[in-house]
Amino acid sequence: MVERILVTGAFGQIGSELVPALQREYGKDNVIAIDMKKPQDFEGISYIFDIRRYDELKEIIKKHRITTVYHLVSLLSVAGEANPDLCWELNMGSLKNILDFAREFNLKVFWPSSIAAFGKTTPRYNTPQQTILEPTTIYGVTKVSGELLCQYYNLKYGVDVRSVRFPGIVSWKTPPSQGTTEYSIAMFYEGIPTGRYTCPLREDTRIPMMYVDDAIKAALMLMKADSSKIRTRTSYNIAALSFTAKELEEEIKKHIPLVVEYRPDDRQKIADSWPDTLDDSTAREEWGWSHDYDLPRLTKEIITNLKKKMKVE
Ligand code: AKB
């Protein structure tokens, strides 16, 4: 059967890289991209509208005979704290609707959870797959609730929904958005053209992180895995890197001159509530997860690409 794929939040940080990967794999005509706005150079089928227009969404699912949804729409941690009501409405409302459509039209669903599902009471080092989930951000609350809702729809209605807890994703195609780990992207975006960056976190803040290519690889691998292998229907821990802000600064300095000033703001409290490192052995055992990028490779890749994008020598 031909897969016909819908991606929501298609032009955000992950979607901007996932959509072309899906188009390469399944063909341009089989990938439908939905977001609030579209980049000028996008080639493919897209619809530009607010995801909360559920009747319209349902018509698109029917019209294109969608089989699989990558539901990426989400307000991140910083945006969520600025508007908790909207965060709940958008993150949870849209997930509930996508899961209901999945029930009705027998869709397979990918939905990203996050390390934001963890909190201060979670073991900080080598955080286990099954552990205490008491987040203190509304974004984290939507991730824990979302994980449980996914599991419920799987158990109750047999919906084939799969999820990973993404660490902070480092990428270069889209500018940093309103998350806590997005400082890492901003360090490149501001550091390359100006040689300076003011970091909103302490230099010793260590957070699990991952290059975007590994994040795309994880999503595609998980969705392709045989359903009998997927025994976790909440969300899988997946790990790649874990670096401090200072370690990132030092790695970037091997390529460009950079002065970083550390001036922690509200984001520090959020970062301090997340683990340092994750145990992702369940994902590695059950569906063969492995990452490719280490910090030097990630840094070189981003600097090379961003310099080209920014036309900086
Ligand atoms: C954020 O920082 O809010 C996100 C995340 C870790 O989910 N990047």
Short description:
It is built from eleven helices and 14 strands. With 313 residues, the chain is α/β, with parallel strands linked by helices. The chain has two domains: 5-167 and 211-237, NAD(P)-binding Rossmann-like Domain (Rossmann fold, 3-Layer(aba) Sandwich), CATH 3.40.50.720; 169-209 and 241-275 and 292-310.
Number of domains: 2
Structural class: alpha/beta
Number of strands: 14
- Low-pLDDT residue intervals, each spanning 5 or more residues: none
In whole angstroms, how far apart are the ends? 48 Å
CATH topology of the largest domain: Rossmann fold
Q: Fraction of residues in helices? A: 40-55%
Rg? 19 Å
User: How would a textbook summarize the main sheet?
Assistant: 6 strands, parallel
Strand content: 15-25%
Q: Which overall shape is indicated by the principal axes computed on the Cα atoms? A: globular
At the fourth level of CATH, the homologous superfamily of the largest domain is: NAD(P)-binding Rossmann-like Domain
